[in-house]
């Protein structure tokens, strides 16, 4: 099977992806076809796309890579480019890049002329298994992640695993964190298989992760309930990512690196509050530390990170809501965590 149905669109893999995009563009007869890239995907991935779709692309729009550029200011530049190059409501925007680019490109497309079609072609492991699936689009607001955005579905998502060959090992490992998360929240069997696999970039594992996320999203497209389980590790993880991104004395962490820490911390909270066994907690910590370098957190770091939690977009009525684990493969929604436990969670991580 090389496609996964997701409501109004499909996720296509490998050869079927090539056929799908060409058929779609032919049938829709777009007035203009734009491709959004960054400097990396322009060099490494755009030539492959141009080979697949031929001369139908009218304009290449480029933005700088990096989470620090996932801003309204960057959106303004792309909106202006679309307008200057004659984009109208019958135009198509193809987002060729990682999670930052597909998030931002999807938001740009969803708001330009009150909405134009877009297609996501994720080029990192992280975006293939997570960011490009499910219709979440948006940008950061200052140091706060994903504060501005909409949920809007693409026309299709196209997965070309061979594009991963252009990435360095750190980027690949960052994506692996989200794959491990899919096992933790939904499938202990998948978790166990990933722990021992040599090549998790194989199309079969990518497809499995996409299928797990897609099943959750299909059940709850607008994140009113079960879809929240996809946020495991992200409440503390996003706060850590934001802190390291904006602190000039810290080296920025990739998304998956911050979320891996978040999953260890939230695993500890799960043990304290929801009965996750110590054996499972140690399994989670050991697995992530085998793949991700340990980060040192001072008392001051922890204080600032915990303070950032109050801005998390999942909060309601002033409450910080966590997704925790009852067991590996069994997640629980909307858990309130007593503040003193945060310090204990970091102490567990640090020890």
TrEMBL record:
It comes from Flagellimonas meridianipacifica. Coiled coil: none annotated. Pfam families: DHQ_synthase, DHQS_C. Residues 61-173 form the 3-dehydroquinate synthase N-terminal domain. GO terms for biological process: aromatic amino acid family biosynthetic process; chorismate biosynthetic process. Its cofactor is NAD(+); Zn(2+); Co(2+). Catalyzes the conversion of 3-deoxy-D-arabino-heptulosonate 7-phosphate (DAHP) to dehydroquinate (DHQ). InterPro entries: Dehydroquinate_synthase, DHQ_synth_AroB, DHQ_synth_fam, DHQS/DOIS_N, DHQS_C. NCBIfam families: aroB. This is 3-dehydroquinate synthase. Gene3D superfamilies: 3.40.50.1970, Dehydroquinate synthase-like - alpha domain (1.20.1090.10). GO terms for cellular component: cytoplasm. The lineage of its organism: Bacteria, Pseudomonadati, Bacteroidota, Flavobacteriia, Flavobacteriales. Keywords: Cobalt, Lyase, Metal-binding, NAD, Nucleotide-binding, Zinc. It is an enzyme of class 4 (lyase). Residues 175-315 form the 3-dehydroquinate synthase C-terminal domain. SUPFAM superfamilies: Dehydroquinate synthase-like. Its EC number is 4.2.3.4. One of its GO terms (molecular function) is nucleotide binding.
């Amino acid at each position: 099977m090389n496609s996964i149905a997701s409501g109004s669109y499909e996720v296509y893999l490998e050869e079927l992806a090539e056929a799908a995009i060409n058929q779609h563009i032919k049938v829709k007869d777009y007035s203009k076809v734009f491709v959004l890239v960054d400097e990396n995907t322009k060099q490494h991935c755009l030539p492959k796309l141009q080979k697949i779709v031929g001369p139908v692309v009218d304009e290449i729009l480029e933005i700088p890579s990096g989470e620090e550029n996932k801003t309204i200011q960057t959106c303004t530049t792309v909106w202006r480019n679309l307008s200057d190059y004659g984009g109208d409501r019958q135009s198509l925007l193809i987002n060729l890049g990682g999670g930052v680019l597909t998030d931002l490109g999807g938001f740009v497309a969803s708001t330009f002329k009150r909405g134009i079609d877009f297609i996501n072609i994720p080029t990192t492991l992280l975006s293939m298994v997570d960011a490009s699936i499910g219709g979440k689009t948006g940008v950061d607001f200052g140091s706060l992640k994903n504060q501005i955005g909409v949920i809007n579905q693409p026309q299709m998502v196209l997965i070309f695993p061979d594009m991963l060959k252009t990435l360095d090992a750190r980027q690949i490992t960052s994506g692996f964190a989200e794959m491990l998360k899919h096992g933790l929240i939904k499938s202990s069997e998948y978790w166990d298989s990933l722990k021992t696999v040599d090549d998790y970039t194989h199309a079969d594992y990518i497809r499995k992760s996409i299928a797990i996320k897609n099943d959750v999203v299909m059940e709850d497209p607008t994140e009113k309930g079960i879809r929240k389980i996809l946020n495991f590790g992200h409440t503390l993880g996003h706060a850590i990512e934001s802190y390291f991104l904006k602190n000039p004395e810290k080296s920025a962490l990739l998304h998956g690196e911050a979320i891996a820490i978040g999953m260890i911390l939230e695993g500890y909270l799960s043990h304290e509050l929801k009965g996750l066994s110590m054996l499972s907690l140690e399994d989670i910590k050991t697995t992530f530390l085998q793949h991700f370098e340990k980060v040192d957190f001072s008392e001051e770091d922890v204080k600032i990170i915990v303070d950032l939690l109050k801005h998390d977009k999942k909060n309601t009525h002033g409450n910080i809501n966590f997704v925790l684990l009852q067991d590996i493969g069994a997640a629980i929604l909307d858990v309130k965590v007593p503040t003193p436990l945060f310090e204990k969670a970091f102490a567990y991580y640090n020890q």
